[in-house]
Amino acid sequence: MRKTTVVIAAAVALVAMIAVPIAFAQHARGMHGEAFGGPMFLGHLQHLKQELGLSDQQASDIKAVFQDLRQQNAQYRQSMHSTMQQVAQILLNNPNDVAAAQAVIDEQTNAERTMKINALNAASKALNVLTPDQRTKLSTMVQEHLGRMQK
Predict the structure, then answer these.
(1) Other CB atoms within 10 A of residue 36 CB
(2) Distance (Å, rounded) from C-alpha 62 to C-alpha 17?
(3) Model pTM?
(4) In whole angstroms, what is the distance from residue 58 CA to residue 37 CA?
(5) Which of 10, 77, 79, 99 has the fewest CB within 10 Å, making it most exposed?
(6) Model confidence band, residue 128 (pLDDT cutoffs 50, 70, 90)
(7) What is the structure's pLDDT at 148?
(8) Mind giving me the DSSP string for 77-126?
(9) Structure confidence at residue 144 (pLDDT)
(10) Domains of the chain by residue range
(11) CA distances (Å), 112 to each of 53, 77, 121, 132, 150, in order?
């Protein structure tokens, strides 16, 4: 049972190690108008390329996976930007129309879930680009990172 827990924790950590830089890159793009694949994402990818010894092909494949993810999630990101404005407007128009406001929030929740599932699938594809040794090294990096974060 303990081994299963460790394996699941490692898998979650690996997804986080791959997906978190991507999420931050997407957030930075939204805040600063940079295209996905801009300086922040490329910095993380270059760091991983160096640390894991990724080939140019592997780095290119990983970049393509997350560019596809960005395109796949574009419609959801766009709809999520206006959610709170829509909720506020609904309630300003009719303070008793909580059901309509809740419906808008439910739509956002569904969009967030879809985006997270898309990110998990992209992380899986990206991890499949790595060799077993590279995944092992990434796992070690994730564990070290989590250890530093807990201190």
Answers:
(1) 20
(2) 13
(3) 0.65
(4) 15
(5) 99
(6) very high
(7) 85
(8) HHHHHTHHHHHHHHHHH-TT-HHHHHHHHHHHHHHHHHHHHHHHHHHHHH
(9) 87
(10) 2-150
(11) 33, 8, 14, 31, 27
